[in-house]
Amino acid sequence: MPIWLRFLLVLWLAVGSAFGFSRDNSTSDSVSVAELPREARQTLALIRDGGPFPYQRDGIVFGNFEKRLPLEARGYYREYTVESPWRRDRGPRRIIAGQRGEFYYTDDHYRTFRRIRE
């Protein structure tokens, strides 16, 4: 491997760890279903029932580009809108569903996630 490529790799790893990026799960926090806002519990019920979903973009692939959830193949995660009644748009709240049945909640538009405990 050329030395310049090694340098870039070391720099990337150093910068990534300084800003909290890692290959590990950054969802150390969790939340029980009972602790979720009412709208999030409703969205979770819709996901389990297979819809119908109120927003056109519900069920699209969540890319996990920020790598704040465990790394999986593209298409593994799907995102669903949690209604924010005080907003005219979709708002910042989402539930992310993994293919193995795990769920994550974010109320700050993907900056932080909490795994939902059943």
TrEMBL record:
For this protein, the record's InterPro entries field holds: N1-like, Ribonuclease/ribotoxin
The UniProt record lists the keyword Nuclease: yes
Lineage top rank: taxon: Bacteria
Q: Which organism is it from?
A: Dechloromonas hankyongensis
What's in the keyword line of the UniProt record?
Hydrolase, Nuclease
Q: What is this protein called?
A: Ribonuclease
